Amino acid sequence: MTKFLSLATAVLALARESNALVRPDNVGKLPALGWNSWNAFGCDIDAAKIMTAANEVVNLGLKDLGYEYINIDDCWSVKSGRDASTQRIIPDPTKFPDGVSGLADQIHDLGLKVGIYSSAGLTTCAGYPASLGYEDIDAQTFAEWGID
Hints:
Shape: globular
CATH architecture of the largest domain: Alpha-Beta Barrel
Low-confidence stretches: 3-15
Structural class: alpha/beta
Helix content: 25-40%
Mean pLDDT: 90
CATH topology of the largest domain: TIM Barrel
Distance between the termini: 49 Å
Largest sheet: 3 strands, parallel
CATH class of the largest domain: Alpha Beta
Order of helices and strands: HEHHEEEHEH
């Protein structure tokens, strides 16, 4: 019985402590919830597939349950490198004819947020340009595209 009371006390203390991390506007009440393109499509992604998934998050009621992120995983850029003059990563125009910003606008119109994958190395796991040495440029670029 003593072990049970000790466990119960610890659980209650943790529960009280975790509520202290929730802001008055409920930020922190749930973990970040969303959908990521990798498990469904791997590198076989494009704007249409991602918009279909975003629409399903809304249609299935997941948005109402707290899902808010649509994450574009690896393979969204051209594999050949960065723009020579700006050093920015170039979205694949075949996969994203309206650019990443056009897709982000459509996702935002659904009331959802957009995330995008990069890597801390020279290349991503699939061999696409990554952010090592370009962190500031990439952060600025992603923000300009409407990535949340």
